[in-house]
Amino acid sequence: TAGGTREALDPVRYLGNRSSGKQGIALATAAAKRGADVTLVGANLEAEAPSSVRVLHVGSTLELASAVQDVAPGVDAVIMAAAVADYRPEFVADSKIKKEVAGDRVRNPDILARLAETRRPGQLIVGFAAETEPDRDALLALGRAKIARKGSDLLVLNRVGWREGFGTDDNSIVLLDRLGDIVMEASGSKQTVADRILDAVVARLA
């Protein structure tokens, strides 16, 4: 998966995030170059996906969840690089909401945890965690807590901010396994980072 989900508030506005989809697209591109049959579930992509992959375009978290649920049972590995909204509005207004009107939120389904719970034997589930924590030890603690909570096989942990991670051409990541141990670290172009992540994925599939 790639990009960032958007949760409509009304016909004019939405809740969303700054993910461009570049890292997920880089992963899809690198996997296709290695001979994989790739389906990319893209949420509001701001970069072009290669013609070598099948692209399913989605908007909201529920749409992404539905698409992933359809595709996941038949694949060897699921890499959840999309930035997914935790909450959505309880109701979507038919007309522009006025400033003084506030609505309730409801929690979106936990797609990564569900994938981990329902994966078939031999299937690999890779999650992503984008965090703004500047301290390395605290950042690792957040990643370890997330992989323990979600149950994925690997977790790509990367720090994001105003000028790093989202929307940029470069990335810096730490890859954790289910025990919270560091598998590897990588930095550089998102294509370079994608290849390092796929090296770890292929090693585990083998």
What does this structure look like?
This protein has 206 residues and is an alpha/beta fold. It contains 5 helices and 12 strands. Strand 11 and strand 12 (182-189) form a beta hairpin. The model has no long low-confidence stretch (mean pLDDT 93). Helix 1 crosses helix 5.
TL;DR?
The model has no long low-confidence stretch (mean pLDDT 93).
Annotate the secondary structure layout.
Layout: E1 2-3, E2 7-8, E3 14-15, H1 22-33, E4 39-43, E5 54-58, H2 61-71, E6 77-79, E7 87-89, E8 105-107, H3 111-118, E9 124-131, H4 136-150, E10 154-159, E11 170-177, E12 182-189, H5 190-205
Parallel strand pairs: 1-4, 4-5, 6-9, 9-10
Antiparallel strand pairs: 2-3, 7-8, 10-11, 11-12
Helix pairs in contact: 1-5
Main sheet record: 5 strands, mixed
Quickly count the helices: 5
Anisotropy-based shape = globular
**Between the first and last Cα atoms, what is the distance in angstroms?**
22 Å
Helix content: 25-40%
DSSP, total strands: 12
Strand order of the largest sheet: 6-9-10-11-12
Using only CA atoms, what is the Rg? 17 Å
Q: How confident overall, as mean pLDDT?
A: 93
Order of helices and strands, N to C? Answer: EEEHEEHEEEHEHEEEH
Classify the beta-strand content into a percent band.
25-35%
Poorly predicted segments: none
Q: What structural class results from the helix and strand content?
A: alpha/beta
Descriptive labels:
206 residues; alpha/beta; 5-stranded mixed sheet; 3-stranded parallel sheet; 12 strands; globular
